Amino acid sequence: MGNRRGADGEAIRPATGADYRASVERTSVWAALRDHRYLTGPAPWRAAGYVTAGAPLGALLLAFLATALVTGITLTVVAVGLPLLLLLALTGLPVAALERRRLRPVDPAPAPSPHLAPGTPGLTAWLRLRLREQATWRELAYTVLMAFVLWPLDLAVAACTLALPALLAIAPAHLALAGGPDSGGVRPAKVWLVDSYPAACGTAALGLVLLLVLLHPLGAYAAARAALARLLLAPRETEARARLAEVTRSRARLVTAFEAERRRIERDLHDGAQQRLVALSMSLGLARLDAEPGGPLAQRLAVAHGEADAVLAELRELIRGIHPQVLADYGLPAAVEDAADRSPVPVDTDAELPRLPEPVESAGYFAVREALANVARHSGATRAAVHARHTGDRLRITVRDNGTGGADPAGGTGLTGLADRLAVLDGTLTVTSPPGGPTVLTLEIPCLPRPSSGPAPTV
Amino acid sequence: MPPAPVERSRAHRVVLAEDSVLLREGLVGVLGRFGHEVVAAVGDAQALRDAVATYAPDVVVTDVRMPPGFKDEGLRAAIALREERPGLPVLVLSQYVQRSYAAELLDTGDGGGVGYLLKDRVGQVEQFVDAFTRVAEGGTVVDPEVVRQLLRHRRDPLERLTPREREVLALVAEGRSNAAIAAELVVTEAAVGKHVGNILAKLDLPPADGTHRRVLAVLAFLRA
Predict the structure, then answer these.
(1) A398 pLDDT band (50/70/90 cuts)?
(2) Which of A150, A295, B24, B183 has a 20 to 30 Å separation from A116 between CA atoms?
(3) DSSP B8-37
(4) Strand order in the sheet with B37-42
């Protein structure tokens, strides 16, 4: 039980293989079996519960399947039966969900659903996806197996390993209830005749010993049964990969949506507030021409005019921070130079790049800006340099400064945010910052140049 | 502030392109107030080119970002017009300035009759109309913000200049005459001339006659 329970914080991290392996607190029955303390632990009872519950569930399932099948076939004549039979094919879904849940006490490794979420809403899309998935048919196979084979097996194993020893163990009570030795004795579990209390006690002792001994095969059976369930119900490697790919894609979609939203906000501010403010400033400028020079009105107008212009300047900076137009128009090199121009620390830039996909340019730009902001804020540097090239199939940008070093990538949320942003594009961020400097930040994003459109960037 | 010296320059016929109705009306008002005639006020780049073909104006004033793409249609149209009609004065207004844009504009023709201003400047109506007039008369006007970016960009050679010389250089790059610079810095015109001579020498620029040539030489240096 060396593993730590997964904290809430871990659970919300992006799903990776490591996360799936984490949060295993209980050991499986199979692992417990190989431990000499098996009998004193909770594993035998979990195994017993698993197997015992399997029998009635399977019996119910058989009854349901038989009824549904008969009804379906009967109703085929009136055409209602066919959809009913189709639905029967989906019986595996709830059964599998229940069985995966039942798996937890005996095999606590996570067994997530192997199904994908449908890409479009609606019952039809869901149905189509489910019927196409291999997992659906594996689950149906498991369901049939459970209804016809597994539950009788469960019952048999439970009877042999639990009921038989238990009946032997209660022989004295059985005898007493039957009227004592004088009544002619009893046959616990129909094995042999017990007609005296010493014999009954001996039988009880034997039952207890038998119970302890048989808990091992019971555990082994439960483990095998769980392994079979896992084999059929848990996601296969390819399905897990498909899920991971789906998560990755949805994350990329989110980032794209954020980008689009930024551009929308930028355009709204540009078309709305900014234009109105310029018009206001113009009106104030004209009003100042009409006001008597030096008079109180002229003074007030001058103050108002100054305020309007200050707001305009602030708004312009705000809009630039949201989504710089130069990036869209001229691409990354011009935008990087623009960011460098605005840095309080002198920055040498050397960027020669083709036009790259929009998300890449955007991520690169914001990374450079964040890096330069860090240089100005923390490094104590007097000079920085940005170098950007696209070689082969990747964009590589380095930001280097001559500061004091000691930057901690784990400390600043800015750098973490950068790394997350790059991760969406399969990019990487490395920071080397030995005490005493220099700090070098390198980011790499795999990408291919955009198919050319419009003029090449010239700076 | 003295009343506007309208008579100083002759009236120009203007084609104006600006997609915001509010600003378009405002600009028509401002230019009209100083005696210029806006012969056509349009809302997109294609209409601008059509209007120039129809009216053959003295000056074009255009916004950068316009329909349909809301990117740099106005700038593209301005550059195309400069190529079709060499020497047509064009004043480009932009919501933000970018030295890449300035560079592209200045590379059209000989760079004379080109203006590139932050749109916010139109609020300072007199200075705006002054810049407009200089462009209309073949001068070069570059927004102080662009100059500031260019000065930041060329740090190394500029470190040879004194702070005063750098101030003068910025004003030269914006297209100001010696007289205007003298007025701005409250010094004599002769002092300005001396500063300019020193600057050109320190930056290895050839002495240029005429404000316009000098602006272009300085801008070319800053952009290099």
Answers:
(1) very high
(2) A150
(3) GS---EEEEE-S-HHHHHHHHHHHHHTT-E
(4) B37-42, B13-17, B59-63, B90-94, B114-118, B140-142
pLDDT in tens, B172-203: 888 888 888 999 899 999 999 899 888 888 88
Q: Say if CB B125 and CB B159 are below 8 A apart.
A: no
Q: Is the dihedral of CA B188, B189, B195, B198 positive or negative?
A: negative
Phi, psi of A222 (to 5 degrees): -60, -40
Tell which residue, A303, A302, A311, A305, has the closest CA to residue A273: A311
Per-residue model confidence (pLDDT) at position B155: 66
The helix or strand, by DSSP H or E, that contains position A108, with its residue range, turns out to be none
Instruction: Kindly report the number of other CB atoms within 10 A of residue A271's CB atom.
Output: 15
Binning pLDDT at 50, 70 and 90, where does residue A56 land? very high
Neighbours of A243 (CB within 10 A): 18
- For chain B, residues with pLDDT lower than 70 are 1-9, 153-155, 208-211, 224
Contacts of A192 (CB under 8 A, 6+ apart): A203
From chain A, the residues in CB contact with B33 under 8 A are: 286, 289
| CA–CA separation, A198 and B95 (whole Å) | 104
Evaluate whether A99 touches A54 at the Cβ level (below 8 Å): no
N- to C-terminal Cα separation, chain A: 63
Which residues from B are below 8 Å from A when comparing CB atoms? 1-4, 20, 22-23, 26-27, 29-30, 33, 65, 70-72, 95-96, 98-100, 103-104, 119-120, 122-126, 128, 149, 152-153, 155
DSSP-derived letter for residue A429 is E
Looking at per-residue confidence, does A10 or A311 come out higher?
Answer: A311
Residues of B in contact with A325 (CB under 8 A): 65, 71, 95-96, 98
pLDDT value for A412: 61
Chain-chain contact of B103 with A283 (C-beta, under 8 angstroms): no
Q: What is the ipTM of this complex?
A: 0.82
Among partner residues A270, A282, A288, which is closest to B26 by beta-carbon distance? A282
For residue A443, how many other CB atoms are within 10 A of its CB?
Answer: 25
B39 close to B17: Cβ distance less than 8 angstroms? no
Bond preceding residue B68 cis, omega within 30 of 0: yes
